[in-house]
Amino acid sequence: MIKTRLFITILLMGCSNFLFAQAWGGGADNNDLSFGFSFSYLQSSFKIIKQPNWQEPFFDTELNQYATSKLTSISSKPLPGFAVGFLTRYRLTDHLEVRATPSLVFADRAVSYTYVNPDQDVTKSVQTTTVDFPLQLKLKSDRIKNIRAYLVGGLKYSGAIGSKKNEANTAPTERLLRNIKGYSSYEAGFGFDIYFEYFKLSPEIKLTNSLGNMLLSESTPYATPISRLSLHTFTFSLFFE
């Protein structure tokens, strides 16, 4: 019991020293311009707007026959991914800054199709690697010793690299569901700047929604039933500055 109390006392003293010690941060906020890097975990899913006749079987004009049975559902579940990036920050005022966080993103997206004939049920992955170019405003609270809260929001342009194509001689049910190569998004989130002796750590949570239609319209069993695809992403990031 005495050892447990001693451990708790030492732990509380350590936390107290961190929160109320001298102003740390490695000079991250002392300059108007500073740089850093980030690691992110994300989950992405599609919001799907279907065509009015989305349940109809897909008729392949080349083979002159139906390639699928009737659809019963189209859905998309969140899939994980990760990103690595850089940070460039410019201070406008003590509580407002603009930042750019270009990142390389590795993430899978998927759409699941179920049919009257269950043997035709399939999940189509949209494998993409993108380069993201966000531009954001960061609104910061007053600093209380070694921590402060902030809100962040802005716009982002994403460009896909290494996307696959549908070959002309591929069977209809083997064709890919594809997205456009470049698209824009808006994003908003919040986080905390935590100041250590030689650097600043900023854990951040952000939600991102794409603008416009991400579907690449093609005559396939998987693109034809869909009118519009929008991408929704949840991101947890750690920024080091």
UniProtKB/TrEMBL annotation:
Classification via Pfam families: OMP_b-brl_2 (PF13568)
Signal peptide annotation: 1-21
Outer membrane protein beta-barrel domain location: 31-214
Keywords (A to Z) from UniProt: Signal
Name under which the protein is recorded: PorT family protein
UniProt source species: Mucilaginibacter terrigena
